[in-house]
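agent> step 3/5: call structure_predict on target 'Putative FAD-dependent oxidoreductase LodB' (Botrimarina hoheduenensis).
agent> reason: downstream docking stage needs a structural representation; sequence fetched in step 2, passing through unchanged.
tool.input:
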Amino acid sequence: MSPTQDAYDCVVLGAGPAGCTAATLVAKAGFSTLLVERESLPREHVGESLMPETYWTFEKLGVLDKLRASRFSKKVGVQFVDASGRESKPFFFRSHFDHDSSDSWHVERAEFDRMLFDNAAEHGAECLDQTRVLEVLFDNERAVGVKLKTSAGERRIASRVVIDATGQSSLIANRLGLKQINPDLKKAGIWRHYRGGDRDESGGGVKTIISHTSDQQAWLWYIPQSNDVISVGCVGDADYLLKGRGPAAQVFDEELAKCEGVARRLVDAEAVDDLAVAKEFSYTTTHAAGDGWTLVGDAWGFIDPVYSSGVYFALKSADMASACVVDALRTDDCSAARLGAWNAEFKAGTQWVRKLVHAFYSGSFRVGQFVKEYPQHAGPLTDLLVGKMFAPEMPALFADLDPWLEKAAAEGGSAGDSGEQLAAIA
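tool.output (status=ok):
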């Protein structure tokens, strides 16, 4: 199948959560929209634990009822396990905010992405998978379309706006040299899926579990999904995990053996797929938009998986960017300034999560102690952990947290109670 016309108001590249969101919202506004995906859908991808704040974009997309009716595991909270194996009291989101938005999901991305792809089509976008983007076409510095390859051959498609949602491939950012690796977060991840692991459904659903290894050189996620499947991943410095230690499977097993919080939950489990590896996944871009184009989701940047912010950032960036795209198309002003007007607010909000990630890895984030000294920040800190990063209280929180972390590091603070993060502020 190939595009049905030679020109669109908007072409969206990549059918992950960001691309599907952008395509849906632009098409809903009445503009001709083409969404293209290189792979055949559904396609495999590491499972995701969703932040509760994804609710509001799902509401805009009209997929809440589909999610509620899906087989995805309902996520009701988070639990942390420290380096000694001590488990925090589970924190249930509804104990902080009793609203439907407090319930989220652990999703299998193949099915989840297909749901969003079909939803985009239902709202008027033309959606094509197995369609390769050969080139983003520019007239001087303005994006004017794309060159595609489908089963029917090559096509040149004109577009008033190109939205790059190609994930870490980040076609436009790589072409223009906009991508910047975060030198302080050169991490790597190794993961696989298991069947038969422990599933604690107290509280009406499952929880994301974050566990430190005994030497605190890495941490592991434990995400119960549907069909008795558990996603387990290990994250640490890229050099530590991937250089000079042998095959990834050996490294994964070694780190798992040092992580009592996960190992004991997998005693009766068996691996159901091969390992996957990703590295240096923390990066940003110097520009979010240019004349005729904008970046969303991982094409714009990615921080770290520790707080499960990836899909939320994808959805929220696409939500905000699509509003600017609709405004640009309505006013016939597809300039960089108009298309990128969303980014200042988005960047300001995501900086708080970035700071919290750095605090997690600092070795001095003793949250229980911090909240004891600054009880007024308990609520805002929890807000940030559930995704409310645009709350007005965030600057005041970090005005106190930043110097507190510096002092704790100077005094040799330990990350030993970081497993108590959510329980300490519930």
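agent> step 4/5: record observation. Confidence is low (pLDDT under 50) at residues 414-426.
agent> proceeding.
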